[in-house]
């Protein structure tokens, strides 16, 4: 059954979504870029399907989720909203890869060959190729997911020859920093990796970087997709 919306949800999420788009437009303007070149991915992890519906009512179509089972439940609840584009952005365990392959249009967190291989073989034949971003551990944190920058080439080569995967670009979640210069340095490093990859694969078009607290730095460094959760849906518990 489709969940019902309340007015309270609508107003808050609608206003926040509008501010998020305004923030992107301002950051793009400052960076002398066209804001149409930057996609807003609304990150709805931990939030109910009604929140997603509220954003949908405002025209939002791209949504990001991080937890497989939670996401699959919401995707099922919202299956009448057939033009939602679902992105998986969380860590992928091998035993969950089939659910990711069958339920999402994009996966932004591919960081090893084994997962790429599984996603390719598990993508249903009836669906278009799964759009893939390689996640890069740009600040080289020990505990973070993402491949080392010098592993990008090998992974890209593999993904590029997979019939059921479509290589689209790179994603990163740099270490948290309140210093804008540090943030920009990480983002510029990722931009450099992206440019290098694009010389080999000219069709790649997506550099996914920037979250609620670093949208400006990411856009200044060339991001084409910002992933915003908190600023649209509120803090997560
Ligand atoms: C949760 C999450 C986001 C959104 O973060 P906010 O700080 O809430 O905007 C973006 N990207 C990834 C990969 C996430 O897991």
TrEMBL record:
Its cofactor is pyridoxal 5'-phosphate. Residues 24-236 form the Alanine racemase N-terminal domain. The keyword Aminoacyl-tRNA synthetase does not apply. The keyword Ribonucleoprotein does not apply. Belongs to the pyridoxal phosphate-binding protein YggS/PROSC family. Pfam families: Ala_racemase_N. GO terms for molecular function: pyridoxal phosphate binding. It comes from the Bacteria. It comes from Pseudoalteromonas haloplanktis. InterPro entries: Ala_racemase_N, PLP-binding_barrel, PyrdxlP_homeostasis. This is Pyridoxal phosphate homeostasis protein. Keywords: Pyridoxal phosphate. NCBIfam families: YggS family pyridoxal phosphate-dependent enzyme. The modification N6-(pyridoxal phosphate)lysine is found at residue 45.
